[in-house]
Each structure stands twice: as structure tokens, then as C-alpha cells.
Design goal:
binds S-adenosylmethionine, 2 domains, 4-stranded antiparallel sheet, EC 2.1.1.72, SAM-dependent_MTases_sf, transferase, S-adenosyl-L-methionine
């Protein structure tokens, strides 16, 4: 029976029009992932009321229903008429009580009556919008967050929701409000993060890191079930998992979530923002300031740093690249310049495949300068004022951010290509005095030997495991 639902899905994949697929984000879930998603629901021997949002071929609702007792009801909402027909065919194989609603989820009024909600929504970015909630509304910037909020609000008391979504909601500024709302609204029960990016959606050309999330409408459970390196190749019950309290996964007021517990060697380190430092984003947005970019140095101009100026662990200026290396004097009227002094520059984007997700470079500028907004910079000020770091602190911090333990820490919380200032502020950090000691032990050079940095840091903090 299940094989037939898989065949219906595969047939529909072959018939998707590329225009419609792009427009409605029709990336259909393969059967192994659908089975893993449905396996996260608790077993119940009473009939369920299932909701499948953005149902596609109905594969998720059908696999969920096939595991439940007779008398279960499925409501599937799908905007695409052809897929809605496929959904009818799939769901009728496993359930007698099926209602297919061929409409947009935004045009359907749902009561909070469902005991099982399952979805693999569209992942599109949208203009920031407020979703109405009992508490007044929550700001979202992605369609999957809107679908998930609708799903959660359709849950009956005690109901469970499983979603196939990107990992991006777990960290960063954009999803901050959504995270807070969701964690207050329901219990976070399970997180399943796939080890490889493409393995599970091979025929769908999906490049984002995708995960399974299970939440339920009840007070927070004591333990969250975590699979931090799952594979769709075998049932989840045969894969490694851990159960940990939610608090051990949450970071700071922004409620950043990581998928593993923190390395115990970092236990004594406070977040960077508690060490008298702050992470900001470069203030120059090049396309809004085209008129002041300059290819040559002018008498009253200032240096401009891009990620191209990050030469290994030091920032250099000027460098040969195809970006203007100066801004004209006019910049002084635009609240863009940073005061002369020492800082640590950090990239804002990096891929999982890179040796280090965080690329830190020490900069000591004798003059005021501008930084492109594709760079973060760490300083001693606040969100409103920029104050340079003590020079030895800037060097020590650059070394600290180049360690493998910090790289592992960052990979645990970020599944996207962004390196967010919000996340960096929560990064475990030694005291300033310890950073200065570190700077005395090892010079910051362009071609820093990262193995050596690990050794020196390991010795300084007596981490025998790391040396
Ligand atoms: C990522 S696909 C997943 C389909 C199916 N749930 C699955 O797992 O295979 C998202 C589905 O949502 C549908 N969709 C997109 N926007 C929608 C909307 N506003 N209302 C209802 N369905 C929508 C698309 O047509 C597509 O079938």
C-alpha cells in the first residue's frame, strides 16, 4: 500500500511544470523522509484528526494515516488542482474519511481541532509580515514560518505537529520573534537534523539544510529528542539519538537553538556580549553608496574593507581585487565610518564545506575606515556606539575565533550560509585578560597554522583532549 503512495508521488514529480514548481515551491517529499516524519508522532489507538498543509500528493497525510486506527480523518489543503487530485488518490488508499480542500491555506479558516498536523511547506522568503496570534502577532520573513504558525494554531490541546523545514529558524535575527512565540506556544519535542544536504531530496534539487521538527500543544516536555546526524537511509529508531532538557539547547535572550549540547570545555566561558564586546555589521551598503566608492586613493578619502581584504587571519589594505578600496570624503556625512583602532573582522557568509565557518581577521587601522555590510566587526562598544578593542584583545579574539572548538560550536547552531551577528554575540568567549594572554603566546599572521592555534589554546585552558 505504502509503495503505491510512493509511486503516486514519483509520477507527480514527473508531471510537475517547472513554472508551477517554482511558483508554488513544489518540492515533493520522498517516501523515506515521509516515513521518518510520520514516525515522530506518538502512537495512539484512538482515531486521529489529521491536517496536511500544502499537501502536494498527500504523501505526508497518507503515511501518517496509514499508521493510525480506523476512523481517522484527514483534511488536506493544496492550492494546485492537479496535485490536489493526486492527494485524493493517495489519501483514499489509506483512509475512508478524507477531505481535500483545493485552495490556498490563507483562504481556509481552521479550527484548533487537529490531533496530528503534518507539513512540508514552501520555503520562500517573503517581505516581513505579522501573523495574527493570541498574543497580538509575530513577525515572520519566510513562508514556511507562516505555514508552521497556521499549523500550530490548528492543533487541538495535546495535538502534535511534525514539519519538514529548513534549519534557518533555529538561529539568527530574522526568526527571533518566531522562535520565541513557538517555544512559548508549544512543547519542543524532537529535532532531526540530516547530516548531508542533498541526500534526502535527491530528485528535487534542494540545496538548503532541511530538518524535521516535532512540537506539541502542551507544556514543554522534560526532554527533547535529538538526532543531530540523521540519514534518510534507515528508520530513525535504528539511528543514534540523545534526549536532553530544552534549556541545555537554548542560548541567550534571543533563544537561539543548537542541536547538540555544548562541549563541556566551553562551560566556563560567558557569551561574548557579556565580556564587554559587541558584534555589529559593516555599515556600508555598496549599492546605496555607489557615488562615494573610489578606485583610487583621494586626498581626504578613507579605506574601505570588504571580505576580499580578509587575507587569512589579518585584514590588509589596499588589496588587488575588483572592488573599490576607498570611499571619498563625502562618507563623513553618512554615519558609515568606524573609528581608527583595532577590531576583529568576521565574514557574514560561509559554506558548510569550508574549513572554518567563522573567518576572523585582525585589523589595526591607523585611520577611520569603512566596512562593507558583508562583514561583521567586533568592538568594545554597544549596538549604538563603536569603540575599538584593545589591540591585544583584538589579536587574542582573532585567535580564539579561529579554533576548531569555536568552529564546532558555530556549526551546531547554524545550518545556513549566514554568519549572523546575533549568533556571534552568544559565542562562548574567554575574559579579555585571557585573550590578551593568548595574543602574547602566538602572533596573528596571514597564514595562521590552525593546528597550532588549537594547541596553544588547549594548553592555555588545560584542555588535554585538544592537545
Ligand atoms: C514543498 S511542497 C510539499 C508538498 C507535500 N506536502 C510533500 O511533502 O510532498 C509544498 C506544497 O505546498 C503547495 N502550496 C504552495 N503554496 C500554497 C498555499 N498558499 N496554499 C496551499 N498549498 C500551497 C504547493 O503546491 C506544494 O504542493
Amino acid at each position: 500500500m505504502i509503495r503505491t503512495i510512493a509511486e503516486i508521488r514519483d509520477e507527480a514529480v514527473g508531471e510537475l511544470s517547472s513554472e508551477r514548481q517554482q511558483q508554488l515551491e513544489q518540492f515533493l517529499t520522498p517516501m523515506p523522509v515521509a516515513e521518518q516524519a510520520a514516525s515522530l508522532f506518538s502512537y495512539t489507538n484512538t482515531p486521529a484528526r489529521i491536517l496536511d498543509l500544502g499537501a502536494g500528493t498527500g504523501i505526508l497525510g497518507a503515511v501518517t494515516a496509514s499508521r493510525l486506527v480506523h476512523g481517522t480523518r484527514v483534511v488536506a489543503i493544496e492550492q494546485d488542482q492537479i496535485l490536489a487530485e493526486y492527494a485524493k488518490a493517495s489519501l483514499r488508499q489509506v483512509c475512508d474519511d478524507v477531505r481535500i480542500i483545493n485552495a490556498s491555506v490563507f483562504d481556509v479558516l481552521l479550527e484548533p481541532e487537529f490531533t496530528r498536523v503534518i507539513l512540508n511547506p514552501p520555503y520562500k522568503k517573503i517581505k516581513p509580515m505579522i501573523i495574527p496570534t493570541a498574543g497580538g502577532g509575530v513577525k515572520v520573513t519566510n513562508l514556511y514560518a507562516v505555514f508552521l504558525a497556521i499549523a500550530i494554531q490548528a492543533l487541538a490541546e495535546g495535538g502534535e505537529c511534525v514539519a519538514i523545514i529548513p534549519r534557518s529558524w533555529m538561529n539568527g535575527e530574522y526568526f527571533k520573534d518566531f522562535r520565541k512565540w513557538m517555544l512559548a506556544e508549544c512543547s519542543l519535542d524532537a529535532l532531526v537534523v540530516y547530516g548531508s544536504r542533498q541526500e534526502h531530496f535527491k530528485d528535487m534539487d534542494i540545496l538548503q539544510e532541511i530538518m524535521l521538527l516535532k512540537v506539541s500543544k502542551r507544556p514543554q516536555t522534560n526532554r527533547v529528542l535529538i538526532y543531530d546526524d540523521a540519514s534518510p537511509a534507515m528508520p530513525l529508531s535504528e539511528q543514534h539519538s540523545i534526549e536532553v532538557p530544552l534549556d541545555s539547547l537554548l542560548l541567550g535572550r534571543d533563544r537561539i537553538l543548537r542541536v547538540q549540547q555544548q562541549d563541556e570545555r566551553l562551560a566556563d566561558f560567558e557569551p561574548l556580549c557579556n565580556r564587554g564586546m559587541w558584534v555589529s555589521t559593516g555599515k556600508l551598503v555598496w549599492f546605496r553608496n555607489r557615488d562615494i566608492l573610489s578606485l583610487t586613493e583621494t586626498a581626504d578619502g578613507y579605506p574601505l574593507y570588504w571580505s576580499d581584504n580578509q587575507c587569512g587571519s589579518v585584514a590588509k589594505h589596499p588589496v588587488e581585487c575588483n572592488r573599490p578600496q576607498w570611499v571619498t570624503e563625502e562618507v563623513t556625512n553618512r554615519n558609515i565610518l568606524l573609528p581608527a583602532g583595532s577590531y576583529c573582522l568576521v565574514n557574514r557568509f560561509s559554506a558548510k564545506e569550508q574549513q572554518r565557518r567563522i573567518h576572523a581577521s585582525y585589523i589595526a587601522s591607523p585611520v577611520n575606515f569603512a566596512a562593507d555590510n558583508k562583514l561583521n566587526y567586533i568592538h568594545s562598544g554597544t549596538s549604538r556606539t563603536t569603540v575599538p578593542l584593545d589591540d591585544a584583545v583584538a589579536r587574542g579574539l582573532t585567535l580564539w575565533l579561529s579554533t576548531s572548538i569555536i568552529d564546532e560550536w558555530y556549526r551546531q547552531i547554524s545550518g545556513s550560509t549566514q554568519v549572523n551577528a546575533t549568533d556571534l554575540r552568544q559565542l562562548p568567549c574567554p575574559e579579555k585578560q585571557q585573550l590578551m594572554t593568548l595574543a602574547d603566546l602566538l602572533p596573528v599572521e596571514e597564514n595562521l597554522d590552525l593546528g597550532k592555534v588549537d594547541q596553544v589554546v588547549g594548553r592555555l585552558f588545560s584542555w588535554t583532549k585538544m592537545v
